[in-house]
Amino acid sequence: MGGVFEPLKAGGAAIALDEIEISILRSLAVQLLELIGPGEPEPEPDADPLAALFAASDGPTEPPSDPALARLFPDAYGGPETPANADTEELRAHSAEFRRFTENDLRTRKREDALAVVRSLDGLSPAGDGAAVLEVDGELRLRWLGALNDLRLTIAARLDITEDDESAVLFRLPDDDPRKPMVMAYLWLGGLQETLIETLAGTL
Fold first, then answer.
1. Share in percent of the chain as helix, strand, coil (round to 5)
2. Structure pTM?
């Protein structure tokens, strides 16, 4: 398998990971959980379902100040493709309303994705050759895909990488640059994400 996801004949995907790779992936997923923050508290058993529904939809209206969180939870309106003559105040109002009703659910989903990665890695036991095979299928494969994407977005924000300048930044850093380990992790995660997507495409 060689450190990338490969399709399984019965469906799903598999990857061989050594102890260092397991440790790195688990550490990154745990850091992502810490960045996203705690989930919504469970409603009381005797709580009014209607009141709980409205409470769940009362999320934040302002974008996060942390650049990484801003990548994970971007504004729904007012992106780079917005026409120059667009009403920015109106777009800001629409984004705030959209965020209020969706960000809490999105945070919950991203937490569940990262937790699924941590739990599946915790279940691995490297064999005598120092590697363990992780198999993912069904919902777990989608959880991994979501978490890998979130990890890459987070690292890209920390490195100030955009799609336009990605290649220039990633491939010209000297080996003694302190950002180099993070860049290598970014590239590695990209390979995992790409090969996992390929296994999904083969089942469509």
1. 55, 5, 35
2. 0.83
